[in-house]
Write a structure and sequence with these properties.
Layout lengths: L10 E8 L9 H11 L2 E9 L11 H14 L3 E4 L5 H11 L2 E3 L1 H12 L3 H15 L26 H36 L4 E6 L5 H9 L16 E7 L3 E7 L9 H6 L1 H8 L3 E7 L5 H14 L7 E6 L10 E4 L5 E5 L8 H13 L2 E8 L4 H9 L3 E6 L5 E8 H10 L15
Parallel strand pairs: 1-2, 1-3, 3-4, 5-7, 5-8, 8-9, 9-11
Antiparallel strand pairs: 6-7, 10-11, 12-14, 13-14
Length: 433
């Protein structure tokens, strides 16, 4: 990978600005959790009351002097701000502190760099890093500048800064080309699942809501799960069987966060497309989190950015084991459809209810049942087999076929209407769903 991140353990001072616009204000507790996830050893948390950010330092010059003294006294390696810094602010602060300065976007990028495991994930992180770093390149090689002329004063015609930017653009182009191939392969795999009529269900939600723990519990997998932000970065897909329904593909995706940098949303678009092309989204919510309403808003905002806000959503209130007096349950809307499920992925309570709710919601668009087809409908029988919709077949005493079929309801209605008959004329009284 282009940027290899430090393994962690750096002594850090965390700086949080208070008193800003509520919409722009960040969560200080979440900021500390991000720093821990990145491996920082926090020596101080500085809360700066600031209503009008400074153009030069973001914070006031007096506070900058205080922080400089604290950096030297504590032998700090890095100062991290819980806000987005401009390239000039970052350089000005580094010049004063004489150590690395990182903003919120850089911190999240660092965590992503540590978590990426697959080739695709590493490419996506590198693309986001390059995009972030492109505005932070500074002139560092004055001996290679263009010169005005004269003996011994003629340069190579290109400054080192321009060379860095040109090489960076070339690398970005290469990464985008590789990611386009990954996207094409992902689309091909997705089309294969669609041809097999296997519905796709994606877990989405705020980071650390328990998506990977739930994924492991439902699929009996061992995907890495930890009580930390962005424990999962690379998407994982598993095929599972639902009772009275059939197979589905369940996807575990990267978690969202408040003010998720647009660079990451764009870089991880190929991964997030797994969610935007799903038949159903399971929005995993930390039921024990006091700020869960704000987190729900942030998740819906990101889903809107990737074009997934129109997909049916089932809310999954997780971590029921941390609540008292709340039992696993399915809550339904006015039409009787499952709207939210309360469960605990950790101890397994409510997992059966989740599978039941998913099967109910997906069955709305599928016909799952047993058909009795007389011999004169042999052509229709052949079409069901051609589509791979037949689960099993038996024969009655009159030579007719009893077909257990499963296929999209629209496709089912199209096939039988082509024979000039109504669907119900083919369905025996023991038809399922």
């Amino acid at each position: 990978m282009f940027f290899e991140r430090h393994g962690g353990g750096e002594r850090a001072i965390l700086v949080h600005l208070d008193g800003q616009d509520p919409e722009a204000r960040e969560d200080p507790q979440e900021f500390q959790e991000l720093a821990i996830s990145a491996g920082a050893d926090t020596v101080a948390f500085v809360n700066v009351p600031r209503h009008r950010p400074s153009a030069k330092y973001l914070i006031g010059s007096g506070k900058v002097e205080e922080l400089r003294d604290q950096v030297k006294a504590e032998k700090v390696d890095i100062v991290i701000f819980n806000h987005i810094l401009t390239p000039s602010q970052e350089r000005n602060l580094e010049r004063v502190f004489e150590c690395r300065v990182l903003d919120r976007t850089g911190l999240i990028l660092d965590i992503f760099a540590q978590r990426a495991r697959t080739h695709e994930g590493k490419l996506q992180v590198e693309l986001a890093q390059l995009d972030h770093m492109s505005t932070r390149l500074v002139r560092g090689w004055t001996h290679l500048e263009r010169q005005g002329g004269g003996i011994g004063m003629r340069g190579p015609g290109e400054t080192q800064l321009e060379t860095d930017r040109r090489l960076l653009r070339v690398r970005v182009k290469q990464i985008k080309s590789r990611l386009e191939k990954v996207r094409s392969q992902r689309d091909q795999a997705r089309r294969g699942r669609q041809r097999a009529d296997i519905p796709s269900v994606s877990l989405v939600g705020y980071t650390n809501a328990g998506k990977s723990t739930l994924f492991n519990a439902v699929t009996d997998s061992n995907v890495f799960a930890a009580d930390q932000l962005f424990a999962t970065l690379d998407p994982t897909l598993r095929r599972i069987e639902l009772k009275d329904f059939g197979p589905i593909v369940l996807a575990d995706t990267v978690g969202f966060i408040r003010h998720l940098p647009h660079k990451l949303v764009e870089a991880f678009r190929a991964t997030l497309e797994e969610s935007s092309n799903s038949d159903l989204l399971l929005h995993v919510i930390d039921s024990h989190e006091p700020e869960r309403l704000a987190q729900i808003e942030q998740v819906m905002a990101v889903l809107g950015e990737i074009g997934a806000d129109g997909i049916p959503i089932l809310e999954v209130y997780n971590k029921l084991d941390l609540l008292e007096g709340v039992e696993p349950q399915i809550q339904r809307d006015a039409d009787g459809k499952p709207q939210r499920v309360w469960l605990s992925a950790r101890d397994g309570r409510g997992l059966d209810l989740l599978k039941q709710a998913v099967a109910e919601l997906l069955s709305d668009d599928l016909f799952v049942g047993t058909l009795r087809l007389p011999q004169r409908f042999a052509r229709l029988r052949a079409q069901f087999f051609k589509l791979g919709a037949v689960q099993s077949e038996e024969h009655d005493d009159e030579g007719g076929s009893l077909l257990a079929v499963r296929l999209p309801r629209v496709e089912f209605n199209r096939l039988v209407s082509r024979e000039g008959m109504q669907p119900l004329e083919f369905i025996e009284q023991h038809t399922l769903q």
